[in-house]
Specification:
About 30% of the residues lie in helices and about 20% in strands. The protein is α/β, with parallel strands linked by helices. The protein folds into two domains: about 190 residues, Rossmann fold (3-Layer(aba) Sandwich); about 180 residues, 3-Layer(aba) Sandwich (Rossmann fold), CATH 3.40.50.2000. The strands form four sheets. The chain has an eight-stranded mixed β-sheet with strand order 6-5-2-1-7-8-9-10, with helices on both faces. A six-stranded parallel β-sheet has the order 15-14-11-16-17-18, sandwiched between helices. A hairpin with a 6-residue loop joins strand 3 and strand 4. The longest helix is centred in the N-terminal third of the chain and has 16 residues. The protein is globular and about 60 Å long.
């Protein structure tokens, strides 16, 4: 599939609306996440619309701060939708405004779209539900960050339970939820496992990495608002705790490591540099094209996962890591239980300890071409957008 979407099949299947954060958070990884779903659905023959109908804050594309001037965000949305051949299939309702919207339909047209849609997919749970959304015939919650909702339900949170009850189907990237070796309680609701889709052809590099020969990743340093407690055990939703355990890793292996990071203090950044890490500002990769070139220009990805995914063995896997794999860039990442479902050992290696991580990196460096080829094979076999989304749509009865 071309990036411009010029070779889509005729739209002979049902009408699908995707809710997301493409305009509100116009940054690299968030943008690609939405575009993979839109293109994958359209390539399966669905009439796909993208809608932002949320009161969530809008972030300025240049400063990253919340803004009331959403004009640059709408222009960004327009450009991205045109780039995938869906320039006439988007709607943006400004936050707090209920009388009009921008894009391919007015506010009455948006209501009609909801009535006509075969399904509306709430990607990332990005949209809050309002009474007017009850007219939607098939509402799908697509959870990319498992655990908090399941814990809230198990703790008897009535609001969470009422919100989830309004959906017809619930999907999660926590592929191991419900398994005997997963500590996350699954009660009251059925969660269907899915995984991040990728349009592999979008990520094919022109050759071997030449930009910066490092194993890299793109990350935010600290989060605290999504921590959960279950049976007196706290599971934290922040990567910096896991990265700190590996601070000395560059001094123990000969593979260069780089963090494109936002939110790290100057003091801690200097500590990591002293230990041999390379650091750069993740804000430099906000543009989706620059983000993609950064991934394609790396040797591979080395990253950790949040404790909230690791400790209870959720089976979660990163949509960013999937992009590295699609570019033929091997991935070394912290084990969350995903190795039960994905091929590991070539192209994708998991670790639990620093010694595991060192050995995985050196294994890839010792036979890079083999691991690079295996990475691409894994992307095609396990994460191809057509296959992943076909299974999702079959589950809800639209294929």
């Amino acid at each position: 599939m071309k990036r411009n979407g010029g070779d889509y099949p005729p739209a002979r299947r049902g009408k699908v609306v995707v809710w997301g954060y493409l305009a509100s958070y116009p940054f690299g990884g968030m943008t690609w996440q939405v575009l993979h779903y839109l293109a994958g659905l359209r390539n399966l023959g669905f009439d796909v619309w993208y809608v932002e109908d949320t009161d969530a804050e809008v972030r300025d594309p240049a400063t990253f701060w919340p803004t009331d001037n959403y004009a640059p965000n709408v222009e960004f949305l327009r450009q991205q939708m045109e780039s995938v051949g869906l320039g006439e299939r988007w709607i943006f309702r400004p936050p707090g405004v209920y009388e009009f919207c921008l894009g391919a339909a007015d506010i009455n047209g948006l209501a009609g779209l909801y009535r006509d849609a075969d399904t509306v997919i709430n990607l990332c749970g990005s949209h809050e539900l309002r009474p007017e959304h009850d007219q939607i015939g098939c509402l799908v919650y697509l959870e990319t960050d498992p655990v908090p909702k399941q814990i809230a339900v198990a703790n008897g949170d009535q609001k969470t339970m009422a919100d989830l009850a309004r959906y017809h189907y619930l999907f999660t990237y926590g592929e191991n939820l419900g398994a005997d070796d997963c500590l996350v309680p699954v009660e009251h609701f059925t969660w269907h496992a899915t995984r991040p889709p990728v349009v592999v052809d979008w990520w094919q590099p022109s050759g071997n990495p030449t930009t910066h020969k490092v194993f890299s990743t793109v990350t935010s340093w600290t989060h605290s608002w999504n921590d959960v407690t279950w049976r007196d055990e706290r599971w934290r939703w922040s990567k910096h705790y896991e990265f700190r355990k590996l601070r000395s890793l560059p001094g123990h292996c000969g593979v260069p490591l780089e963090l494109a990071v936002v939110g790290i203090s100057d003091e801690e950044a200097e500590q990591f540099r002293t230990c041999g890490w390379r650091l750069r500002a993740a804000s430099e990769l906000a543009d989706p094209g620059v983000y993609r070139e950064y991934i394609r220009g790396s040797l591979g990805e080395f990253t950790v996962a949040k404790e909230q995914y690791v400790r209870p063995r959720t089976g979660w896997f990163s949509d960013r890591s999937v992009c590295y794999l699609a570019a033929g860039r091997p991935v070394v990442t912290q084990e969350t239980g995903f190795s039960k479902f994905l091929s590991c050992g070539e192209g994708l290696l998991s670790f639990l300890t620093e010694e595991d991580a060192k050995q995985a990196l050196e294994t890839i460096a010792g036979d890079y071409e083999r691991h690079s080829a295996a990475a691409l094979t894994i992307a095609r076999e396990y994460f191809d957008a057509d296959d992943v989304i076909r299974r999702l749509m079959a589950t809800i009865g639209l294929l």
